[in-house]
């Protein structure tokens, strides 16, 4: 067992290029495009693998919600034999082959403790801790001109506080730790949250003969994943080339009502704002249905309102009903961990989160962010290419100036002799 006293003295390392924090899809995409342009960099990753969210915190049945062409990273498409909606295992295989193809070698098990901009020198100081069974705890400080935040919006689980939950006595699990409904056969499960994760977990539970009740506290857009054999997302993107967003929303909702019926009568009230406009203005993603809604219509997945409090083996709802339950799954989402280590700044203060897509990737003082514009993998890929190109331009210009300076000194030295 490693002890705190096993800390070595901090090593200071100059990086002649950017430091990229995070080896998920966003970090890999930036690194690959930098590699293509021959710009040096390092990638820091706190886990022991790439795409740790996908590898360690996703359920077994997960597939990409969008067609693969909208989820591929820059400069390397998915294999042609992959299905239109790859499984999580196929997506992980794709990411690993992506890292191999571009010879990307992240520094694993290295956690960023702080990143601070040193105004005196115009450089970033990134302090990390490497946890190694062989070496113990090693501390490093990386000095660089550019810092790329690629840890994403889903770095830490969100676990709300509920009155009485500590007295519940049953199994309580975050959706990030959920793998399969097999262990819940015959059990009454309360799923807290009605986003894509909550819907899919409820569907998986029902398919494994559990009895899920899904908590729906607010309005939600439920759309079919496909309309007339075409991806709903792709259809929306195509229509937006020719129509305003409000008209695209209206068209999608009319088609959705024809295919799914009135979702309101089953406890899934739609927001007043259309799904695409709501996504653009509030970042709230619509649910793309892959079978859960038919289970809701048949009563195999029950919809319940908000939670008042928990008790031993039960939950009291805000409408006064009491349900006897065996387990609770919290499909309550994730949040960014950037504020915990990006010192004296946050993404809003330095200008990144204030800038809407497609300009939300660049801050001040050489700080960049990838995957924070709420546009999924396709948006992250766009961010990555923009960031890589911007850094490459600056790096090449600085390198050119350095060469000129060295050449000038060399000429003066020769003339002196």
TrEMBL record:
What GO MF annotations does this protein's record show?
flavin adenine dinucleotide binding; indole-3-pyruvate monooxygenase activity; N,N-dimethylaniline monooxygenase activity; NADP binding
**Pathway this chain belongs to:** Plant hormone metabolism; auxin biosynthesis
Protein name per UniProt: Flavin-containing monooxygenase
The answer on whether this UniProt entry bears the keyword tRNA processing reads no
Q: Name one GO biological process term.
A: auxin biosynthetic process
Name the cofactor(s).
Answer: FAD
Flavoprotein found in the keyword field: yes
Q: Could you say which EC number(s) this protein's record lists?
A: 1.-.-.-
């Amino acid at each position: 067992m490693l002890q705190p006293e096993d800390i070595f003295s901090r090593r200071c390392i100059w990086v002649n290029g950017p430091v990229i924090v995070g080896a998920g899809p966003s970090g890999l995409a930036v690194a690959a495009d930098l590699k293509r342009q021959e710009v040096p960099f390092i990638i820091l990753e706190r886990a022991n693998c790439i795409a740790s969210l996908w590898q360690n915190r996703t359920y077994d049945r997960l597939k990409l919600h969008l067609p693969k062409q909208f989820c591929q990273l820059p400069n390397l498409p998915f294999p042609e034999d992959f299905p239109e909606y790859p499984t999580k295992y196929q997506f992980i295989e794709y990411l690993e082959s992506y890292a191999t193809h571009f010879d990307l070698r992240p520094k694993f098990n290295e956690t960023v403790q702080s990143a601070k901009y040193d105004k005196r020198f115009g450089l970033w100081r990134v302090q990390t801790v490497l946890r190694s069974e062989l070496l113990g705890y090693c501390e490093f400080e990386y000095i660089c001109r550019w810092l790329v935040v690629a840890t994403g919006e889903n770095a830490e689980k969100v676990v709300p506080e509920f009155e009485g939950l500590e007295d519940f006595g049953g199994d309580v699990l975050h959706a990030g730790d959920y793998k399969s409904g097999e262990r819940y056969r015959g059990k009454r499960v309360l799923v807290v949250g009605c986003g894509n994760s909550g819907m899919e977990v409820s569907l998986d539970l029902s398919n494994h003969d559990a009895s899920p009740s899904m908590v729906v506290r607010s309005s939600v857009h439920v759309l079919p994943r496909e309309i007339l054999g075409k991806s709903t997302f792709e259809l929306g993107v195509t229509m937006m080339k020719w129509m305003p967003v409000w008209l695209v929303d209206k068209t999608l909702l009319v088609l959705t009502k024809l295919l799914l019926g009135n979702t309101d009568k089953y406890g899934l009230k739609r927001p007043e704002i259309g799904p695409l406009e709501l996504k653009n203005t509030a970042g709230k993603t619509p649910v793309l249905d892959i079978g859960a809604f038919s289970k809701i219509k048949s009563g195999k997945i029950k919809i319940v309102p908000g939670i008042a409090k928990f008790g031993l083996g039960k939950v009291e709802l805000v409408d006064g009903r009491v349900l006897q339950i065996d387990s609770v799954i919290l499909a309550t989402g994730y949040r960014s961990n950037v504020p915990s280590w990006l010192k004296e700044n946050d993404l809003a203060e330095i200008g990144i989160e204030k800038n809407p897509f497609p300009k939300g990737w660049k801050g001040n003082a050489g700080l960049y962010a990838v995957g924070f514009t709420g546009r999924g993998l396709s948006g992250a890929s766009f961010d990555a290419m923009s960031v890589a190109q911007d850094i490459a331009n600056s790096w090449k210009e600085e390198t050119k100036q350095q060469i000129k300076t060295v050449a000038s000194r060399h000429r003066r030295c020769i003339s002196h002799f």
